[in-house]
Design a protein that fits this description.
The protein is built from 24 helices and 19 strands. With 761 residues, the protein is of the alpha+beta class. The chain folds into 3 domains: 453 residues, Multidrug efflux transporter AcrB transmembrane fold; 98 residues, Multidrug efflux transporter AcrB pore domain (Alpha-Beta Plaits); 87 residues, Multidrug efflux transporter AcrB TolC docking domain, DN and DC subdomains (2-Layer Sandwich), CATH 3.30.2090.10. The strands form 7 sheets. Strands 6, 7, 14, 15 and 16 form a 5-stranded antiparallel beta sheet that branches. Strands 3-4-2-5 form a 4-stranded antiparallel beta sheet, covered by helices on one side. Helix 20 runs antiparallel to helix 24.
């Protein structure tokens, strides 16, 4: 159901009913998720608008107003087609869909930019606009189709992401596939149709027109500005293509090594500023519900007046949500923070709560912040299984003791039974039979001293449930000594129960859990604020490898580590599947295995930019978000290479010299390559920096929780695409030059051998 609509209906119903309630009853709403979702949707909507504005500003400045207007039509047209597809399939708009729109803004205009830029170039040369756009749609149709299909191939495997994480992220590939498919139709059909009627060359100076003509058929020496500088740099690079390729491979290895040494490690999902937190209160002893409530009230009073807490909800006793937690939990307090922009970070607030409550005798306080994303429980979860409970207990204590030595680990729950005593009554059946006493009679007698003996039940007129009628001794007689004095009425006399019953004190046994018939206990803990859970898991694994446990004890890491491995395994498979699909499309397009492998190598090399971005921003590599970013790059990076190599294959047929063909191809394709890169990067930079502009209230915010969701993914694409563009403009031409040099060498070698054979004959 739509949570916003459902919440509004609930509030309307409560408002209507509250009119009939006494005046002193106050109604408030706690943990209203609809408000949080509404804020996130508003932030992402503003980000979509900002991304579109930045993209359009760049296009207007380069191609002129008319061309930009035609390209701009592709944005709402593609968005409409994508959202309509979601609606027809019964999917709702959510935060993942909105981010997909932001990611698509810079990508969906790529095809329209390529068509419009080519037509613009043709009109500058004097071709009529109708013929220019017809020529552009025909000339660029296969490159655009191939580039769009490769992008879709990168996202297609993500549709099959299993598990909870897959259910969470499936909207991203589906939305992008729908929108980018629509953008291809916009670029090849609607843009040429509109351009043939209203298109015109951009407002350019005579020098720029001369530069465009020089790039087409003129002398390279006439090129000035950015294009001229680029051609001079490329011309020098083409003199040493082998060295450039080796340098790029060495950079790939060095950057990967640098991240291993200096990087911030790995995490499963980004750490996002929470809106809620839960205090779990632990206390041991046979406490009554009133005694537990006294402790809970004492803790509540310590924090009730903290201004940064919007609401406090206290529950005495074990709730359904905490039944999987420790057995000594006596209650929980749910904290709701005020808006993130008018308070301190949640970590500082939680530290203050801990300081205020840590000195309460007889209690242990555990504060858990509400984590966003797929539910995985505590950061560190270690399942210990064995046939012997004693071996499990020894192993668990050994591992937990190591936690203190490792450091950086908090909120530890060892999963062992809470220390306690339970009394076991052993009945001498033969002795009891002498007095004609059975087990049921003895049990009923003991109940009179403990929880009471049920005699009957009745249902009051105002109730739908029955109420038990229980008899038991007065409170002063409910003790262990009274158990020894219990007498049981037999046919002859009252016999002390101690004549045939012995009581023994034994350790209390809590919940018994088994996995595959083996006793199982799960150790659970969290990493401290600012500490990566994966780093601590690796330290624990290293300890277990160097300090082996009993062979009969099995250790398995669950929770975040397990989910991380599952997602990592899937994303690697998805990446390889995407590369295979892209390879098939490229071989079909170019009929050249070398060109296909060359383009795919750019995908691998683009990870240099991803790692550099993580090193610069000081962020860890997120398996989910950065992993998706790398896969997204696989589809984005190939587009510019396809356009460049396709142009080279056409020009090299007219110009026999490989170097001249490469330089002319690079000069012609520099502008569309830079345009497509800049539009995609500008669309994501606000999200990467966490900047959000509210166009209604005219306020600027930085670092909102909705921005934190997608910062990692945006960082991967922005830095990866920037570096991949350098590869496209320098390394790809050098690879083409190396291919030409090798072919020239083989032809020369073959000619020499032919002449030598002719002489001998």
């Amino acid at each position: 159901q739509n949570i916003i609509e459902t919440t509004n209906e609930v509030k309307q119903l409560v408002d209507q009913e509250s009119k009939n309630w006494p005046a002193n009853i106050k109604v408030d709403y706690t943990q209203d998720k609809s408000e949080n979702i509404r804020n996130m949707l508003a932030d992402l909507t503003n980000s979509v608008i900002l991304a579109v504005l930045l993209v359009m500003i760049v296009i207007v400045s380069i191609l002129g107003f008319r061309s930009a207007l035609m390209i701009g039509i592709a944005v709402p047209g593609s968005f409409l087609a994508g959202i309509l597809s979601l609606y027809l399939l019964g999917m709702t708009i959510n935060v993942v869909v909105l981010f997909s729109l932001i990611l698509a803004v810079g990508m969906l205009v790529d095809g329209a930019i390529v068509v419009t830029e080519f037509a613009d170039r043709r009109m500058v040369q004097g071709v009529a606009r109708k013929l220019a756009y017809i020529d552009a749609s025909e000339r660029m149709s296969w490159p655009i189709i191939a580039s769009t299909m490769t992008t879709l191939s990168a996202f297609f495997p993500l549709l099959f992401w299993p598990g909870v994480t897959g259910e969470f992220m499936k909207f991203l590939p589906f939305t992008l596939i729908m929108i980018l498919s629509a953008s291809m139709l916009m670029a090849l059909i609607f843009i040429p149709t509109i351009g043939s009627h209203v298109g015109s060359p951009g407002q350019r100076s005579i020098n720029i027109r001369k530069m465009i003509s020089a790039g087409e058929t003129g002398n390279f020496q006439n090129l000035e500005g950015i294009v001229g500088t680029y051609i001079k740099v490329l011309n020098k690079a083409l003199l040493h293509p082998g060295k450039i390729l080796l340098a790029s491979v060495a950079t790939l290895i060095l950057v990967q090594f640098a991240y291993i040494v200096f990087g911030k490690g790995i995490e499963f999902f980004p750490d996002i500023e929470p809106d809620y937190a839960v205090i779990q209160v632990h206390a041991r002893g046979n406490l009554s519900i009133k005694e537990k409530d006294i402790l809970m009230r004492e803790i509540e009073n310590k924090i009730i007046y903290m201004e940064e807490l919007k609401s406090i909800y206290t529950r005495t006793g074990v709730s359904k949500q905490s039944r999987d937690g420790a057995e000594d939990i006596i209650g929980s307090i749910q904290l709701e923070f005020v808006d993130w922009n008018i308070r301190r970070p949640a970590g500082e607030i939680m530290s203050e709560v801990m300081n205020r409550t840590k000195n309460l005798a007889g209690t242990k306080i555990e504060i858990l912040k509400k984590k966003r994303g797929p539910p995985i429980g505590k950061d560190i979860q270690i399942k210990v299984t064995s046939k012997s409970y004693k071996k499990i207990e020894y192993a668990v204590k050994k591992i937990v003791n190591q936690f203190d030595k490792i450091g950086g680990i908090t909120n530890v729950d060892d999963g062992l039974d809470v220390p306690g005593i339970e009394w076991e009554f052993e009945v001498n059946r033969s002795q009891a039979a002498k007095f004609n006493v059975d087990i049921i009679t003895i049990g009923n007698a003991i109940k009179l001293v403990t929880n009471g003996l049920k005699f009957s039940s009745y249902r009051p007129d105002e109730s739908i449930d029955e109420i038990d009628i229980v008899a038991r001794f007065p409170q002063e007689n409910r003790n262990l000594q009274e158990l020894d004095r219990i007498r049981i009425q037999t046919n002859s006399e009252n016999i002390p129960v101690s004549n045939f019953v012995k009581k023994k004190a034994k350790l209390k046994v809590g919940t018994i859990k088994r996995t595959d018939t083996l006793r199982a206990i799960t150790i659970k803990a969290n990493a401290e604020e600012g500490v990566l859970a994966d780093n601590k898991v690796q330290e624990i694994k290293n300890y277990l490898q160097n300090t082996p446990l009993d062979p009969g004890v099995n250790i398995a890491f669950k929770g975040q580590d397990e989910k991380r491995k599952e997602s990592q395994s899937f994303l690697i498979k998805a990446f390889l599947a995407a590369l295979c699909l892209i390879l098939i499309i490229l071989v079909t397009q170019f009929n050249s295995f070398y060109s296909a492998v060359l383009i795919l190598s750019a995908v691998v090399m683009s990870t240099i930019g991803v790692m550099i971005g993580l090193l610069i921003t000081g962020k860890p590599f997120g398996i989910v978000m950065n992993g998706i970013g790398v896969i997204a790059l696989a589809g984005i990076v190939v587009n510019n290479n396809i356009i460049l190599i396709d142009t080279y294959d056409r020009i090299v047929k007219e110009i026999k010299k490989s170097k001249d063909a490469i330089l002319r191809s690079a000069a012609q394709r520099l502008r569309p390559v830079l345009l497509t890169t800049v539009t995609t990067v500008l669309g994501l930079i606000p999200m990467m920096l966490g900047v959000n502009i509210d166009f209604i209230s005219r306020q600027v915010s930085i670092g909102s929780p909705s921005m934190q969701w997608w910062s990692q993914l945006s960082t991967s694409i922005v830095f990866g695409l920037i570096f991949a563009t350098i590869l496209t403009l320098i390394v790809t031409p050098c690879a083409l030059m190396l291919k030409g040099n090798v072919r020239k060498f083989l032809q020369k070698k073959g000619g020499s051998l032919a002449r030598l054979a002719q002489k001998r004959s």
